[in-house]
# Entry
Amino acid sequence: MIQNILSFLLFIIIVQAQDTTSSCNGWAQETLGPYIIENNIWGQGSINNYTQCIYITEDSSFGWNWDWPNQGYNVKAYPEVIYGKKPWSSQSTHPSLPVKIGDVESFVVDFDLTMSGSGSYNLAFEFWVTSDSMSMEDEITTEVMIWTDQNIIEPAGTQIAIPFFDGYYYNLYQEIFDGWTYFAFVSDTPQHQGTLNVYNFLSYMVALGLLDQDEYIGSFEMGNEVVYGTGSTDIHEFSVSINDNLKIEFSKENISSLTVSAPTPNPFNPSVMMDLTNHKQSEYTISIINLKGEKVYHKSLGVLEPGNHSIKWNGKNILGNLSPSGIYFFVISNSKFIESKKLILLR
# Structure
C-alpha cells in the first residue's frame, strides 16, 4: 500500500511539472475545445480519504489519476471527457449533439491512451439517450456503455448477446434501473487505441429494438469507472465525429419513406415474406442478423421504384446453408433509413 501511495505521489509531481492546468477538486472541470474534462466523483458518498485529479498539458494531451480506498462495492467515481450535452448539464459542448438516432449517418471516435492501475476499475465509453432533443435528466430512457477494458469490476445486469464489431467480440449486458434501461457492451479484448465505430453499436441496437431511432443521443463520454484502487489514464488523442460534425443537412426531402409489413408467417419454416411500400425511389440493402450481431445473409436490392415490393428469405445463410432455429432480425436500410423486424425460425 505504501509503495502504491509513493508511486501515486511521484506521478502527481511529474504531471504537475508539465501541466498547464490541473485540479484535484471534486467535480472540477477543464475545457479543451469542444470537450470538457470532468473530475466526476458521483459515488463518493461519505468517503473523504481519496485523491483524484484531472489535468491538461501544454501540448493539449490530458487525463486523470485516482487513489480510492477499498470501501464498499459501488462505483465511486468516473473521471471523464465529455462531448455534447449530459442530461444534467445546461448546454452542449458542440452543436452535433443532441442528435436524433435516426439522423445519425456516421459516428466515429478516434482515441489513443496509456492506462495503468490496480484495484477495481474499467475503461468505458458512454452515451445517454433521451426521449426528446432537450436531453434533460427527466427525459432519460437509456444508458449505453462500451467497455474496452476492465479489471475486477463487472457490469450490472444479465448477459443477453455476444455481438461482433470491427474485429472484437462484446458481451452485451442489460439491466432495468428505476429511471432508465442500462446496457453495457464489454469487449473480450482490451482496446486502448484505435477507432470506435459507434454507428455499428447504434445500428445493432435499433435492429434488435433496444433503441428507438426517434429518440436522441445527448452526450458521448469516455472515462474510468473506479470502485477502488490506484491508477492513471493519459489521453494522447481523442476526437468525436458525428455526420462529419453535421455538415450534411437533413430534411424530409432526403429521408426515404418506407413501410415494412409484419413478417408472414412468423414463426416460419422454411421461408418468410415481408411486404414493402416505398414512397420514393431509393437504393436499399437487406441483412439478416442473428442474436450475436452477425450477418447471416446480406443482399443489395438495387434501386426500388415507388410502389409495393415483396422480400422473401428462405432461411439460408450467405453460403446457401440452412440457418439453425432461433431469433433473427430482418434489416432494410439505405443511407438515410433503417427499419427492422424480428423473425423466429423453427426447424
Notes: The chain has three helices and 23 strands. Residues 258-345 form a domain with the Immunoglobulin-like fold (CATH 2.60.40.4070).
